[in-house]
Design goal:
It is a single chain. The chain is α+β, with helices and mostly antiparallel strands and 169 residues long. Helices cover 22% and strands 32% of the residues. The chain has an eight-stranded mixed β-sheet, covered by helices on one side. A hairpin with a 3-residue loop joins strand 6 and strand 7. The longest helix has 18 residues. The radius of gyration is 17 Å and the shape is globular. The two termini are 16 Å apart.
Length: 169
């Protein structure tokens, strides 16, 4: 299906720290998606599905992976008023409540500059914090100590997902 981020090395390293948790997570996923004109193929509901269907579903899947739980409610709100060249659905915030009690937010925006990082995930759990920046670096803060995990290049999990698909029964 293409929900590749759950297969990235950094996602799995961070998740390994969460296995023993006994309380819900709080997760914030910020996506600086960049502007696309309304006539771009991804914006066409029939062709690309629009950004909510075509892209934000990947970030919801990532939150499901981290929580090992499914959403029970979702609230979303887009920008309003005179949005200029920007689409409401390209600039929105989602709040997701999960069955296990975890809370996730996704901030998705086309307003940011391309020179700023695209994706940042912050996860909070039982006096610990975890951050993944553009799937290049992760920071783990636990028991008063900070650990940085860095990859040579961006790893969005594409190869691991393909390997998983090819080797599944």
């Amino acid at each position: 299906v293409g929900f590749n981020r759950r297969f990235s090395h950094l996602a799995n390293e961070v998740k390994s720290f969460l296995r023993a948790r006994s309380t819900p997570l709080v997760i914030h996923y910020r996506v600086n998606a960049g502007y696309l004109p309304r006539e771009h193929w991804t914006q066409d509901p029939e062709v690309g599905g629009g950004r909510v269907v075509g892209e934000i579903c990947h970030f919801i899947d990532f939150l499901q992976f981290m929580t090992d739980s499914f959403p029970v409610s979702i609230f979303a709100e887009g920008i309003s008023g005179d949005t200029g060249k920007y689409s409401r659905n390209d600039n929105l915030a989602l709040t997701i409540k999960f069955r296990d009690g975890s809370l996730g937010t996704i901030l998705y925006t086309a307003h940011g500059p391309k020179t700023f990082s695209r994706e940042r995930v912050e996860i909070f759990s039982e006096d610990s914090a975890f951050m993944i920046e553009d799937f290049r670096v992760a920071t783990v803060v636990q028991r008063g100590k900070s650990k940085r995990i860095k990859k040579w290049s961006q790893d969005l999990g594409y190869l691991q997902e393909l390997d998983h698909f090819l080797n599944s029964d």
